[in-house]
Amino acid sequence: MNEPPQSRATPPRPATARPTPPRPAVTEPSPPTPAVRHHQHQHQHPHRRRDNRMLVVMLGAVFMALLDSTIVNVATPTIRTDLGTTGSALQLIVSSYTIAYATLLVTGARLGARNGFRAVFLSGLVTFTVASLACGLAPDPATLIGARVVQGVGAAMTMPQVYSMIQLRFEGAARGRALSLYAAVIGLGVVVGQVAGGFLVSADLFGAGWRPVFLINVPVGAVLVIAGMRLLPRGRPPEPKGLDLPGLITLTAALLLLVVPLVTGHEQGWPLWTKVSLLASIPALTVFALVERAVARRAGAPLVPARVLRTPGLVSGAAANFFAMAGYAGFLFAFSQHMQSGLGESATRTGLTFAPLAIGVATGSLTWQKVPERLHRPMIATACVVAAVGYLGIGFTMSSGGHGGSALPALHLVVGIGMGYVTSPLLTVALARVEPGDAADASGVMTTTAQVAQVLGVATYGSVYLGTADDGSAAHAVFVTAMLVTAGALISALAALKLPRGHQP
Asked: pLDDT tens across 160-182, in order?
């Protein structure tokens, strides 16, 4: 007898075969501990610490290059005594560095865009360091002058790469901070050179007299080269640009015609060749513009592309920076001459007089980002006016023939704060809309403008001071110079009002 068929329904499984996971309670997540937050921060920003170290290397090189443009000034008396130099040779020892540096900055920027910013930066740094050793060991004036020229070449290769690498490596607030530090170093380098040169010469380390002024660069440069090889990003620009030899030749010639007489003219009494050279620089610059236009028509890579100059804010920013830096450098030179020649102060005391100025520059450079972006343009213009008030006050204070009393440090501080709120934001605003591929060319334009401005400022305002002091009193000379520098600062304020309202395109 057949049994009834069994039901095909699947019997229920034991409750213990696949336990149902308990539903988690709905609670607020506990906040991470400080250690966890630190770990998350490091994980989210793995390159921040490396980028900061890289920035230290780059700014160290910038500081060293700028320092060498002024540190040798206070060493000239001992150099003349030790090497038995003539007045013209001594002048070339001081100026040959500036001439090479100022005329080759654009060339250095293009070499970086062609061969890689890291490679050219390190090559320039090595060149500068080896040339510094040659300067410190120079047995005669001719060797020292040649080594100074090579120093200037190395600095011109190094400086333009810094902005390019900042532009490509940093973003947002980090880029603004990096540019602020960059501008602060530029503002401080000239001032610190006066102080450092005085201390090194006065210390007479190991009985070496003036030579430590140059030899100090050797260990510092070696450390920066080693660190740079480890930290600077490798690789070539995504779109390497041609060298534009016609542009390089014509621009270098035009800048030499302009810079050489400005640097050497006053010392030599402005002979006929200096005036002819200055006049010839105008058609030479015109020829350069025509050459660049022809290169662009041939679909080449002009040294200064027209599209870079059309970038909103670049030309107006360069103009504002030109008048600000010309007045700043000219004022430092003239006031330094007044302190030492007019008032009989030592080089070290003169350098220390500028300490409040340095403090003001650093303060402004590192705090301007706290101002809302919409106010940056009026802030820059206002800061130019603040610097003008400081210059004006110094002129009136020193016109009585005294040392300025307690008002002088306060007025130097005012000038420094004004300049700090000018140079850093000017770089940021003027260069913010530059395309990454044009960073090197824009850097070359801004650095060359600033350097030529300093040369022109020293030549112009320095000549006014020295000429007026020869004809009358030193107190009247510093007053007249301060009035002219004040006018330049106000022109800078007007140019700053042409800047774009925002940083973004």
From this structure: 888 778 877 787 778 778 877 88
Exposed e or buried b for every residue in 270-305, given b needs 16+ CB within 10 A?
Answer: eeeebeebbeebeebbeebbebbeebbeeebbbbbb
CA-CA distance, 505 to 341, in Å (whole number)? Answer: 50
**Euclidean distance between CA atoms 291 and 98, whole angstroms:** 26
Total Cβ atoms within 10 A of residue 224: 26
Other Cβ atoms closer than 10 A to 238: 8
Distance CA 70, CA 416 (A): 18
- The DSSP secondary structure of 179-240, one letter per residue, reads HHHHHHHHHHHHHHHHHHHHHHHHHTGGG-TTTHHHHTHHHHHHHHHHHHHHHS-----SSP
In this predicted structure, what is the pLDDT of residue 238? Answer: 59
Q: How many Å apart are CA 92 and CA 75, to the nearest integer?
A: 14
Length of the chain: 505
> Collapsing DSSP states into helix, strand and coil, what is residue 464?
helix
Report DSSP state, residue 32.
P
Contact 210, 79 (CB under 8 A): yes
Find out whether 322 and 450 touch, Cβ atoms under 8 Å. yes
CA 358, CA 378: separation in Å to the nearest integer?
A: 23
- Which amino acid is residue 259, in one-letter code? V
Q: Residue 318's Cα: distance from chain center in Å?
A: 13
Q: Kindly give the interhelix angle for 105-115 and 87-103, rounded to the nearest 10 degrees.
A: 40
Count CA atoms within 13 Å of residue 400 on its CB side. 10
Cα separation, 261 vs 277, in Å, equals 7
Tell me, rounded to whole angstroms, the distance of Cα 191 from its chain centroid.
Answer: 13
Residue 392 one-letter amino acid: L
Q: Round to whole Å and give the CA distance between 484 and 392.
A: 9
44 backbone dihedrals φ, ψ, rounded to 5°: -75, -25
Are 237 and 113 in contact, with CB atoms under 8 Å apart?
yes
Smallest CA-to-CA distance from 317 within 413, 183, 174 is with: 183
* CA separation for the pair 356, 415 (Å, rounded): 9
268-308 pLDDT, tens per residue? 778 899 999 999 999 999 999 899 888 888 877 787 777 88
The single-letter DSSP state of residue 242 is P
